[in-house]
Amino acid sequence: MFKEVDYVILYVSDLKRSIQFYCDKWNIPLKLRAQNYAEFRTRGTRLALFDAKEVPGLLGVKGRKKKYTFEVAFKVTDCDRTFAALKAASVKPIVPPTDRAWGQRTAYFEDPDGHLLEIAQDLKQAK
Asked: Which of 78, 81, 82, 118 makes a 20 to 30 Å CA pair with 20?
């Protein structure tokens, strides 16, 4: 069911400052930068940053009092089937499977300590 840990995303209060920190202090090259997102050039599991103020909009849960500080994303072969299996196993769902503009179908859950977990299926591009 789970293929690999795809990436860890840290939710940060100041995206520009955090990018400078990881690039300048840790010497990790920046791979890409979008409006509210930055990803570093790493091997294996990817490291990314996301503007913490934008998380409720990403999840579609504006006004929710829970504050997430990071997520761990897992690649899966079938987001809907994995979502159903996890939900049946009493894993707390946060967002059901949703097609995303960046070419993935994603869903979100919480672990027992309230950490955000994402499952992501790459969607095939129409030719």
From this structure: 118
Measured distance CA(27)–CA(70) in Å, rounded: 21
The pTM of the full predicted model, rounded to 2 decimals, is 0.74
DSSP string, 82-93: HHHHHHHTT-EE
Tell me the two tokens of residue 42.
């790493």
d(CA 97, CA 80): 6
CATH of residue 85: 3.10.180.10
Q: How many CB atoms lie within 10 A of CB 111?
A: 11
**3-state SS class at 15:** helix
Inside any domain, residue 76: yes
Does residue 12 lie within any of the structural domains? yes
Residue at 10 is within a domain: yes
Q: How many CB atoms lie within 10 A of CB 107?
A: 23
Q: What is the pLDDT of residues 49-106, one digit of tens each?
A: 999 888 888 888 776 667 888 899 988 999 999 999 999 999 989 999 999 998 999 9
